[in-house]
Amino acid sequence: MYHIYVLRSLKNGKRYVGLTRRTLQVRVREHEMGLSPWTRDNGPFELVYTETYEEKTEAQRRERFLKSGHGRELLSKLLIS
Q: In what order do the strands lie in the sheet with 15-20?
């Protein structure tokens, strides 16, 4: 299983869209620990959205979309509701 996830920074409200095969709890914990430059500078976070896919290529396609202009607009609408 592949997970698409969206984190919202509690520090500045910015969003982070990611893809992982690990459990979401493990991956969010890694972000909270600051194991990547972007999350190190923008944490702490809350997990605000997830999707799960069987196929890696399908998950990668969705992640790319959510990082695009139209995808960001869709996320904004979904997360307001």
A: 15-20, 2-9, 45-53
Say if CB 31 and CB 25 are below 8 A apart.
Answer: no
38-77 pLDDT tens trace: 888 998 999 999 999 999 999 999 999 999 999 999 999 9
On whether the CB atoms of residues 74 and 51 are closer than 8 A, the answer is no
**Rounded Cα gap, residues 66 and 52, in angstroms:** 14
Domains annotated on the chain, with CATH: 2-80 (3.40.1440.10)
CA-based nearest residue to 43, from 55, 54, 28, 58? 28
- Token output for 31: 């972000």
Q: Where are the alpha helices (DSSP H) in the chain?
A: 24-32, 37-42, 56-67, 69-80
